[in-house]
Write the structure tokens for this entry.
Amino acid sequence: MLDTNSFEISNGGNSYSVSISSVSGILAKSTAESKIVRFHMTSRLAKTFFNLRDPHYMYSEADGYLERKQKVSVLQVMLCGNDEFLVEYLDVE
């Protein structure tokens, strides 16, 4: 039998119950509001996503001049080939 972990997440008044099969080798999207992104483990994105005190990413508006900070809650991480992460996350308001 596969090892399954269950937990609850609260995000801006919304609560989610998540059950994950932690040894299946499959990253399954756990909620409709989550996003999945892939990046290298030494990238700027990795350093900000996995910041223990303030997990976030930076993005530019359409004009490209003003950088904005978006806080995140990381739900799942999978290590892929070529030292890349596949990460499921929620934007936190």
Summary: The chain is about 5% helix and 55% strand. The mean pLDDT is 83.
